[in-house]
Amino acid sequence: MALYVQKFGGTSVGSVERIKKVAERVGRFRKEGHDVVVVLSAMSGETNRLLALAEEIHKTPSPRELDMLISTGEQVTIALLAMAMEQQGIPATSYTGAQVGIVTDKSYNKARIKKIDTESVSSDLKAGRVVVVAGFQGVDEEGNITTLGRGGSDTTAVALAAALKADECQIYTDVDGVYTADPRICSKANRLEKITVEEMLELASLGSKILQIRAVEFAGKYQVPLRVLSSFEDNEGPGTLIVADSEEQNSMEDPLISGIAHHTNEAKITILGAPDIPGVAAKILGPISDANIEVDMIVQNVSPNGESTDFSFTVGRGDYTKAYSLVEECVAEMGAGRILGDNAMAKVSLVGVGMRSHAGVASLMFKTLAENSINIRMVSTSEIKISVVIDEKFTELAVRTLHSAFGLDKSE
Amino acid sequence: MALYVQKFGGTSVGSVERIKKVAERVGRFRKEGHDVVVVLSAMSGETNRLLALAEEIHKTPSPRELDMLISTGEQVTIALLAMAMEQQGIPATSYTGAQVGIVTDKSYNKARIKKIDTESVSSDLKAGRVVVVAGFQGVDEEGNITTLGRGGSDTTAVALAAALKADECQIYTDVDGVYTADPRICSKANRLEKITVEEMLELASLGSKILQIRAVEFAGKYQVPLRVLSSFEDNEGPGTLIVADSEEQNSMEDPLISGIAHHTNEAKITILGAPDIPGVAAKILGPISDANIEVDMIVQNVSPNGESTDFSFTVGRGDYTKAYSLVEECVAEMGAGRILGDNAMAKVSLVGVGMRSHAGVASLMFKTLAENSINIRMVSTSEIKISVVIDEKFTELAVRTLHSAFGLDKSE
């Protein structure tokens, strides 16, 4: 008999009917003899409803009061789920973050968990009760309610699993696992049975927004087996297990790459012939960052003559116009450089711990793209990832052909 | 400079606009230099919305989970009001019942306050902050959230005022005070400047549902000056002050009566000629009570021959048919008695500490009713109250003529 921490997100508890379904699912685990701790988000839409009320009152409300307000969302769902468990004859107790002893620092709206007191949870589990915990929230050492930031319920679940030494932390979502590529554009995408934390981190930050990055990091750090599964009744499968990566797992049997992520709506700005002097990158990116524009990829090359440099970066398409004009100002100030811009770009990334020991990934990738007449506009690499920027219109073609080339297609 | 505890009910915080109005009102007190602790209910309708969600899941949910659920209502309003105070430039901090240290017993849904830890409130007040406290809720000694029952926010306010030794506890409502009679049926009704706790208790239980009875009792017990005022902008007046009654206040100058309460939708059932033996009253009322029917007035007279008794009681009109049939069964069982019933009755009550020292109240009351051809069907008295049951159609006539007869009419 195992101990599971099961997390259900806002869509999974978005209505009374769905809450009853969650209770049934948890009940099945309980009836099999497993101990279950459930972590819940607020009903979908509730947090936004509360934020809208706050905004009508104060444009920049006190972060403490904001946390006081939005933490009510999860408190509602935990009480309702505990009732639904009892309706099924399964004893259950709900706890707010404060009650369960999730102590955080004082950073309202984006607090970090410092410690968890598992005493009451453990004694409830021993007494045969299902424990239902409010995700996303905690309490600082003075008793003020804090929240962990959007998606923080995943972190609550992983942290509880670590503190309770649970056998598995199961994150129920609206997808049934992590795929080798986005199934919406690549019909041959496969569900991965297993993926390493490192790979998951690269995939998550690239747009496969299944799990909160912090939760994945946490799982890696505390060696919590983390599983992503579907919360939909008609899609019960084993999901994808995210394992803490270790050297042993990086064996010759590992596939070259685990998955292909893509991200559209990118824009690219290039400054040709900028003076090749120290601090030029900071000079160009400083105003961009001051304007709160997030920069993704950055590539710099020394020009052939060694006196000037070509500098490129990508931003979200929505920030393109603003970023372009900031760069124009900068170039005017420097008195050198020519600007090229394109706001219809996409990023396609190959991710896999297997590529650590295989030099040939990049060349197979470039060859495949070339065979399909897809121009590469920018390249960036990390130890387990290669990202290329291409014209947006080629996104689907690139993902599908790379998927085949790297042997990821599912066998029919 | 005084310390005020101000309580605003669900209607007063029923929308963002109304919350802003409350913030303005509290702000005015603060700017005059007073310390203010605000106690809030949930936005009107919110508690019922949450209860409806619970009912969809479980007909009789666990009382603990119900309190977990509905206590979120006040948590939302306190955060929003604290934001609205800050929007006005007035520092404010909100506290849940648990945070402010309102410790109760373990009777979920109807908990009683055991103690209040005022440390954080006092230090916030000293620092010049407005303190906003969630009404209606507390926490038991094990940290479980409890609620005080419907209307419990009044009790929270009075208890906080007592613990903080506040100069006044102000309950803002949708009426501007306590009246000598219901102004809707008696146009000459006067707002009372002052009323004793004892009188208020009799008036409240008779249908002038302005304040929760427990809160009034609490105010009497702890000698908290309690004021009822209007929360509406266009109706700012001094309201009515409810004072702990003491012998001194019961002086010759006291008016004979303070107010007239009335209650329609009453039904009366009489058993004539019941056997005059011990336990007959219990025999008749036992089944009524078992059926959860609330009995209000009970009157019993020995019959002239001393062998049988006439026994009358009143119930709400909605319970009349059920009660009548239960009495029929009982009479059949006893083999004696005749039943009379009437389901169109009203109760009119005179209340006043002044009547303690004046024997003439009853005779003036009966004479006035007789002059207006109003038959008295039942009489019941307490030290500071006389209630009569009359035909419902005479209710308004009775209230108006008694109001004039006892000198309560406002001078034009």
TrEMBL record, chains A, B:
It catalyses: L-aspartate + ATP = 4-phospho-L-aspartate + ADP. The keyword Membrane does not apply. Pathway: Amino-acid biosynthesis; L-methionine biosynthesis via de novo pathway; L-homoserine from L-aspartate: step 1/3; Amino-acid biosynthesis; L-lysine biosynthesis via DAP pathway; (S)-tetrahydrodipicolinate from L-aspartate: step 1/4; Amino-acid biosynthesis; L-threonine biosynthesis; L-threonine from L-aspartate: step 1/5. InterPro entries: AceGlu_kinase-like_sf, ACT-like_dom_sf, ACT_Aspartokinase, ACT_dom, AKii-LysC-BS, Asp/Glu/Uridylate_kinase, Asp_kin_monofn, Asp_kinase. Residues 269-353 form the ACT domain. Keywords: Amino-acid biosynthesis, ATP-binding, Kinase, Lysine biosynthesis, Nucleotide-binding, Transferase. Its EC number is 2.7.2.4. It comes from the Bacteria. Gene3D superfamilies: Acetylglutamate kinase-like (3.40.1160.10), VC0802-like (3.30.2130.10). Belongs to the aspartokinase family. This is Aspartokinase. It comes from Marinospirillum insulare. The lineage of its organism: Bacteria, Pseudomonadati, Pseudomonadota, Gammaproteobacteria, Oceanospirillales.
